[in-house]
Amino acid sequence: MTVLGDDGLRRPPWAANDDLMRTYYDTEWGMPVRDERGLFERLSLEVFQSGLSWATILRKRRSFRDAFADFDPDTVAAYDHRDVARLMADARIVRNHRKIEATIQNARATIALRDDGGLADLIWSFQPAETPRPRTYDEVPTTSPESHALAKELKRRGFAHVGPTTMFALMEAVGIVDTHLLDSHRRGTSGVWPD
């Protein structure tokens, strides 16, 4: 169930009390992202979020942008062992060697996709024919056949740390699926899925 806010709007519990999470939910989560850099950023942040709370990542987002050159794939793809060492010493971000290496690898894979339609075309090609219609938080799926297929294709294309759960979270975040609860004020607002 959603929570009725002081402003008269209904949101899921995770977006009801924290100002940062509420703003993210109200203005960004589930809205279409169709550009390479925007998708590379969201993909990278989902990789770092794996095993952690989204609030942790969101609070560090400005630092992640600084550390990863505003998620410019060309710049990140050129990172070497010195950059990895610099990032591992940067207490402002999540210092996980595997996730840092995966982000660099994913930047290189993003560049390689440019000759074959690009990252945005690939990710959006996995949009399902229908989107979930959850009434309660328990009805929100964590994977889908499309997120499994997307994860498999991205791995085939050289991406790392892109499992089906992480890819479903990406699909939710960038509007490919609409998992807003049916009574949320955000349901159907992306323009991708009618309510």
UniProtKB/TrEMBL annotation:
<protein>
    <submittedName>
        <fullName>DNA-3-methyladenine glycosylase I</fullName>
        <ecNumber>3.2.2.20</ecNumber>
    </submittedName>
</protein>
<dbReference type="Pfam" id="PF03352">
    <property type="entry name" value="Adenine_glyco"/>
</dbReference>
<keyword id="KW-0378">Hydrolase</keyword>
<dbReference type="InterPro" id="IPR011257">
    <property type="entry name" value="DNA_glycosylase"/>
</dbReference>
<dbReference type="InterPro" id="IPR005019">
    <property type="entry name" value="Adenine_glyco"/>
</dbReference>
<dbReference type="InterPro" id="IPR052891">
    <property type="entry name" value="DNA-3mA_glycosylase"/>
</dbReference>
<dbReference type="GO" id="GO:0008725">
    <property type="term" value="F:DNA-3-methyladenine glycosylase activity"/>
</dbReference>
<keyword id="KW-0326">Glycosidase</keyword>
